[in-house]
Write a structure and sequence with these properties.
The complex is a heterodimer of chains A (555) and B (247). By secondary structure, chain A is of the alpha/beta class. Chain A contains 17 helices and 20 strands. Classes of the chains: A alpha/beta (555), B alpha+beta (247).
């Protein structure tokens, strides 16, 4: 239930609803979309990335001298968890064709395609198989299927949304493979939202010029992820998932080729070596680093582990100065602050409104522009609604959806959202939600080409961990597509590579070299990465955690 | 939940997710985490309470937003004989709550090839014969933190009504609460998953337009335009982008 003091604002929202309904029905944009200059202006002034302290120079490694997101630079300038000299690399604990690091959507897709091409794989995953951001995507997946759409139109939308910084060959791969991904997933058993005649239901997303968002109610990611996991589990002799066993370093061979990784058993605190002819990083993003203090929509394990282990091995990063804040993170009630409210809400006609119940932005600008406009409305124009805990937000008018699409539409198409709020006495069919941007996506990552290859032979990357596909801003529905397109490609090209790959003696020399680089750059820090898990232990508890010496597994 | 507007309101100037103003003093409750008493904020979720008490969760947290089912929790309340189930990430604590997370659910799961089975009741008979032991006690439905009609979809599976199983189990998170409470030892969530895959693959009507589009891509229909776009300088591309029509 909303606190009483919000009633006045809520009444204004209800009062303007009929007028806004007519506006939506007129077929014209309900608010004028911004042109190039207006977009640039609002981004420069209000996007969190554009603050001076948001970025800093990195002093070591392949991107030395470049300005990166401050928290990322901090994470990269850190010590390894291991001492290389303690590891026996001559007799590895596991041997396989492909080591896949990360058990989300991209990892599972890669394993399935690698298997079809005759390669065996191990999936190392920090939490359970499928515990990933892939599981959480609600709104849908873009793919240019309808007659009035085309893959090239999708290309134009994606590259414009990314501020024309996207790598063209990656955007082509993304958009051209799209329709086939819809078919492939259905072949595996994904239940798409369809019309009576079998045609696919599609909606708009932010920055799309055609309706091309395919969905599975608002459990799109959960349905796709569980299907992919089920395929993995049906092939235990070809794919071996190792749960609660994150990779903490890569292993190279004497020629600088990637040769596997070091895994860490979170429960027994043992380390294991994996020798693999090729390695695919599919570790996803970094929302749990809470960049600039923001809440996040991301899952518990999203700590950017793949970035740091690849960076230490010499992989180049791309666009790691760019962070995506999802416009509609929840801000009330406090218990669900930062939680994702799907963009599909706006795709179905939901409108963002200020405290006066007025429209102030076109509802479906690209995410960075939309987010910046929300921040401007709250901070500069003082038109936000303040919550009891002091957060600011704007309304997202969901009841309008029921008027536009018919009664019952929300219950049928947004069961997750409805559930999320009704627990707290807010019925989103009758009342709007209160939203503010929430840390959502790692736009950049490890640089890849259209075969998912990196500058390290034998190292492939797919999904959110990679950089270049989305330029400096991803559009809605392109990440679900991304992890499928590039997960499959990584599986395909890595399995081709392993057919002829021969490894020399294994080494962890790059770990010692990196440590030396830290020393020569005079970086003094007690930071250790990968981060693995965020800590939410309160300060007063931490003050009492005074163990002076660690022995065995007793912390 | 607080329902009063905070008295003082200062204008916020910096771009920050949270305002810096002091939070009002929190009301606290006592919960018993695996039997040990802890004082936690009254408005906390179970997951928030566990972390507030100083535990670093390894198993028992996943998406933290109600999509992954990693945080299944059982609890009891004072002066109440009932056993309750919930997701730690979305269930609020109550005073006197005695709780324990279930870090993993043991569940049988046959290996199968989706290409070699059929969308009919025989598939359930073969892969999940225990489904037919259902005594319709409705315990699974009562245990479901998503409020799904679990028993109804198990009954639909017995009838071979795959569409119904798909529809009723669609929002399932595989948290395993149904399976752990079922007196017939059925693993409901795996039955639901099988039914959804059978429906998506065999029963959902095909999209003709999708087939057509895939054929067009294979026949290189878009190659020329792609090449044009890829060669185009940023300015030209920008112009095309801002001039494009919107459906």
């Amino acid at each position: 239930m909303y606190p009483e003091y919000m009633n006045e604002s809520l009444e204004k929202v209800a009062k303007s609803r009929n007028k806004r309904f007519d506006l939506e029905k007129s077929g014209k944009p309900v608010f004028p979309p911004m042109n190039a200059e207006e977009r640039e202006q609002v981004l420069n002034k209000f996007h969190p990335d554009y603050k001076i302290e948001a970025r800093r120079k990195i002093h070591i490694g392949p991107n030395k001298g470049e300005k990166l997101t401050t928290e990322v630079a901090d994470m990269l300038e850190s010590h390894s968890r291991i001492k290389p000299e303690l590891f026996d690399l001559i007799q590895p604990d596991y041997e396989t064709d492909i080591l896949i690091i990360g058990g989300g959507g991209a990892g599972c897709a890669a394993a399935i395609i690698a298997m079809e091409n005759g390669a065996k794989s191990i999936i190392s995953t920090k939490l359970r198989l499928g515990d990933s951001n892939s599981m959480m995507s609600q709104g849908g997946m873009q793919a240019a299927v309808t007659a009035q759409d085309s893959p090239t139109t999708h290309y134009l939308d994606a590259i414009g949304g990314g501020h024309f910084d996207n790598k063209p060959e990656l955007v082509r791969a993304l958009t051209e493979d799209g329709p086939d991904i819809v078919k492939w997933l259905e072949y595996l058993g994904v239940v798409w939202d369809k019309n009576q005649d079998g045609s696919l239901q599609v909606l708009h997303g932010g920055g799309t010029s055609r309706k091309r968002m395919h969905s599975c109610r608002d459990y799109t990611g959960a349905i796709i992820m569980r299907t992919l996991m089920d395929v993995v589990r049906n092939n235990p002799d070809k794919i071996t998932p190792l749960e609660f066993m994150p990779a903490v370093e890569l292993i190279l061979d004497n020629k600088g080729r990637c040769a596997g990784g070091i895994l860490y058993n979170l429960e027994t605190e043992e380390y294991f070596t994996v020798k693999a002819k090729a390695t695919i990083i599919t570790t996803g993003g970094y929302g749990r680093l809470h960049i600039r203090g923001y809440d996040t929509t991301n899952h518990y394990g999203a700590t950017g582990d793949g970035l740091v282990i690849a960076y230490r091995a010499g992989a180049k990063l791309l666009y790691m100065d760019s962070v995506q804040y999802h416009p509609t993170g929840s801000v009330f009630p406090e218990q669900i602050a930062g939680f994702l409210i799907t963009e599909k809400i706006r795709g179905a006609g939901g409108q963002p409104l200020n405290k006066h119940g007025e429209l102030f932005v076109f509802p479906r600008e690209p995410r960075d522009v939309e987010s910046s406009a929300f921040i401007r409305e709250c901070l500069e124009r003082n038109n936000g609604v303040e919550t009891p805990s002091g957060r600011l937000g704007v309304w997202l008018d969901s009841p309008l959806i029921e008027m536009l699409q018919g009664e019952g539409y929300i219950n049928k198409n947004f069961p997750a959202m409805h559930r999320q709020f009704i627990r707290y006495g807010i019925d989103i069919t009758k009342e709007p939600m209160l939203v503010y941007p929430s840390l959502h996506y790692q736009n950049g990552g490890i640089e890849i080409d259209e075969k998912c290859e990196t500058n390290i032979p034998g190292l492939y990357v797919a999904g959110e961990a990679s950089g270049g596909v989305h330029g400096r801003n991803r559009l809605m529905g392109n990440s679900v597509l991304d992890y499928n397109v590039f997960g499959r490609r990584a599986g395909k090209y890595a399995s081709q590579y392993v057919k002829s790959a021969k490894l020399g003696p294994l080494t962890l020399a790059h770990i010692s070299d990196y440590e030396n680089e830290l020393k020569s750059a005079k970086i003094k820090t007690d930071r250790i990465a990968p981060v693995l898990l965020p800590s939410y232990t309160p300060e007063d508890v931490r003050k009492r955690q005074l163990t002076a010496h660690y022995q065995g597994t007793l912390r | 939940m607080a329902t009063k507007k905070p008295a003082k309101k200062k204008p916020v100037k910096v771009t920050k997710a949270k305002s810096t103003k002091k939070a009002p003093k929190k009301e606290m409750v006592t919960v018993f985490i695996m039997g040990k008493a802890h004082k936690v904020p009254a408005e906390a979720t179970i997951m928030g309470a566990i972390e507030y008490s100083g535990y670093q969760i390894i198993r028992g947290a996943g998406c933290r937003e109600g999509f992954c089912g990693a945080c299944a929790t059982v609890y009891r309340l004072p002066d109440d004989y009932k056993i309750y189930t919930g997701l730690a990430c979305t269930t609020l604590v109550e005073d006197g709550m005695w709780l324990s997370q279930l870090p993993a659910i043991p569940a049988q799961r046959p290996v199968y090839d989706i290409n070699k089975i059929e969308a009919n009741v025989a598939t359930f008979q073969k892969l999940y014969p225990e489904v037919f032991r259902c005594v319709a006690c409705n315990t699974c439905t009562k245990a479901c933190p998503q409020d799904l009609e679990v028993m109804d979809y198990i009954q639909a599976a017995i009838r071979g009504d795959i569409e119904k199983v798909m529809d009723l189990s669609f929002d399932c998170l595989s948290c395993g609460m149904c399976a752990i409470r079922c007196p017939a030892e059925i693993v409901q969530y795996n039955v639901g998953l099988l039914a959804r895959r059978l429906y998506g693959k065999y029963l959902a009507k095909e999209s003709k337009q999708l087939k057509k589009r895939i054929k067009e891509v294979k026949e290189h229909k878009y190659d020329k335009e792609y090449q044009e776009f890829i060669k185009m300088k940023k300015e030209g591309l920008k112009k095309k982008y801002y001039e494009r029509d919107i459906e």
